[in-house]
Amino acid sequence: MSTSDAQPLIQMQGVNKFFGSFQALKNINLEVRKGERIVVCGPSGSGKSTMIRCINRLEDHNDGHIIIDGKELTDQVKDINAVRREVGMVFQSFNLFPHMTIVKNLMLAQQLVRKIPKAEARETAMHYLKRVKIPEQAEKYPIALSGGQQQRVAIARALCMKPEIMLFDEPTSALDPEMINEVLEVMVDLAKEGMTMICVTHEMGFARSVADRIIFMDEGEIVEEAAPAQFFDNPKSERTKKFLSQIL
Ligand code: ADP
Ligand code: MG
């Protein structure tokens, strides 16, 4: 860990992002310190996914600076790979490899990206499968698991890379209601252990209990940023009030 506690782990400064002539991110300024838990919410199309995809360079930004653990995201492939190793990401769709067992899914990136020997990769995989409470599923194929179990596998897979930061993009949106809590519980555990997290989610119970700060986005802008109590009980912006009235 090279970051001192005073320096933010994630810094976005004046970030703009265009898709053609459409501006998806407008002057985004955001700082996240080590161990902070941020929840991002806002209407569909407001730029939430684009913002977090810029953080691990799945999208490149057009203006401004994104600095992760002191390293600025530039076009240098070497720097991008260094940053990607520090940032784990979990998507709405689980994206497990269907032709590989669960444990092999967890070993793959460790072996390919981190060059970790097979036995050690397996040991790490089993460690994180226990953490997400499904070690007994290790030798099954993804199709045999429920959606909630597959998403927990996806979280374990990201953790196998020992990331400094975890990004979640609507991790429970594709799940049947009865499976949402088992995934949120794993995220709550991670938060308690001090993981730095940015979670795009509309699970407002989770936001209220776990987030240090909630960020509300609309039309590519950060409209409001506040602690949960303030955000829910006393939102400042009319746009936030309207959004909350629709989802709560
Ligand atoms: P959210 O995650 O808040 O629903 P997104 O970040 O996915 O929003 O999208 C923000 C806006 O950018 C939307 O209007 C979307 O249509 C547009 N957008 C996202 N990705 C692309 C892309 N690859 N090409 C063109 N437009 C895109
Ligand atoms: Mg999205």
Automatic annotation (TrEMBL):
<protein>
    <submittedName>
        <fullName>Amino acid ABC transporter ATP-binding protein, PAAT family</fullName>
    </submittedName>
</protein>
<keyword id="KW-0547">Nucleotide-binding</keyword>
<dbReference type="GO" id="GO:0016887">
    <property type="term" value="F:ATP hydrolysis activity"/>
</dbReference>
<feature type="domain" description="ABC transporter">
    <location>
        <begin position="10"/>
        <end position="244"/>
    </location>
</feature>
<dbReference type="InterPro" id="IPR030679">
    <property type="entry name" value="ABC_ATPase_HisP-typ"/>
</dbReference>
<dbReference type="InterPro" id="IPR027417">
    <property type="entry name" value="P-loop_NTPase"/>
</dbReference>
<dbReference type="Pfam" id="PF00005">
    <property type="entry name" value="ABC_tran"/>
</dbReference>
<dbReference type="InterPro" id="IPR003439">
    <property type="entry name" value="ABC_transporter-like_ATP-bd"/>
</dbReference>
<dbReference type="InterPro" id="IPR050086">
    <property type="entry name" value="MetN_ABC_transporter-like"/>
</dbReference>
<dbReference type="GO" id="GO:0015424">
    <property type="term" value="F:ABC-type amino acid transporter activity"/>
</dbReference>
<dbReference type="GO" id="GO:0005524">
    <property type="term" value="F:ATP binding"/>
</dbReference>
<comment type="similarity">
    <text>Belongs to the ABC transporter superfamily.</text>
</comment>
<keyword id="KW-0067">ATP-binding</keyword>
<dbReference type="InterPro" id="IPR003593">
    <property type="entry name" value="AAA+_ATPase"/>
</dbReference>
<dbReference type="InterPro" id="IPR017871">
    <property type="entry name" value="ABC_transporter-like_CS"/>
</dbReference>
<keyword id="KW-0813">Transport</keyword>
